[in-house]
Write a structure and sequence with these properties.
By secondary structure, this protein is of the alpha/beta class. Helix content is 46%, strand content 11%. It has a 6-stranded mixed beta sheet with strand order 1-3-2-4-6-5. The protein is globular, with a radius of gyration of 17 Å. It binds uracil.
């Protein structure tokens, strides 16, 4: 893959933001105040992908600015990170009416923006927040209850990345058990960010890397 500097990738991200800001690809554009493209560090090692903008996000044009966002900020702070260190966005860039669930055709129409964001930001780890982002990016129907806190390696936007599914902070606001689990899963993020990049899927793996990958696989079992 061609090497691009962080400045070049950022410039393309700004161009993508401009394109998304005028998006009329699906009917959600009719009810929106603002497109919520996402924000944060354009060269972040860690990216969070939520579900869809809510009322406050739609009004401000920024992701996770309501109560769920405040909880996300708090949990990030507990591992020494802030919004400036990460990039935060959503599966859908426009608010669904009445905050209903995203529909499959809306996700399908909007996903090229997300894939391009991943391609341009080049994160090491993508934390999907809740079911919609997790199912989309892991291309699986397995729900968040069975996959949270277990890193998976996937090919997204032409790059091999670790996906680390997490409970949605809004779910953690409703249940202390979910909050405790989310906090525990997030506490493992710093170690995950220190891991060497995953071996590209389909690459011919040299023996040493294969042994390392095997060791990593058995480590993953510890996340049981
Ligand atoms: N919930 C989400 O999934 N995304 C936001 O931006 C806000 C709340």
């Amino acid at each position: 893959m061609q090497f691009r500097t962080a400045a070049e990738r950022r410039e393309d991200l700004v161009a993508l933001y401009r394109e998304a800001s005028g998006c009329v690809r699906c009917p959600l554009h009719q009810g929106r105040t603002n497109v919520v493209f996402g924000n944060g560090n354009a060269d972040a090692a860690l990216m969070f992908v939520g579900e869809a903008p809510g009322h406050h996000e739609d009004l401000q044009g920024l992701p996770f600015v309501g109560r769920a966002g405040q909880l996300l900020d708090q949990l990030l702070g507990e591992i020494g990170l802030s919004r400036k260190d990460v990039f935060v966005c959503n599966t859908l860039k426009c608010q669904p009416p009445g905050n209903r669930d995203p529909q499959p055709d809306e996700i399908d129409t909007c996903k090229p923006y997300l894939y391009r964001q991943v391609e341009l930001i080049e994160p090491k780890v993508i934390s999907t927040l809740g079911n919609f982002a997790t199912k989309l990016l892991t291309r699986s129907n397995r729900g968040i209850t069975s996959v949270h806190g277990r890193p998976q390696v996937h090919e997204i936007g032409g790059r091999t990345v670790r996906i680390y599914p997490l409970y949605h902070p809004a779910a953690a606001l409703r249940s202390t058990g979910t909050l405790a689990q989310l906090r525990e899963d997030i506490s493992r993020l710093p170690a995950l960010l220190e891991e060497p990049p995953p071996v590209p899927i389909g690459a011919v793996v040299p023996v040493a890397a294969a042994v390392a990958a095997e060791a990593e696989a058995s480590q993953m079992d510890l996340f049981g």
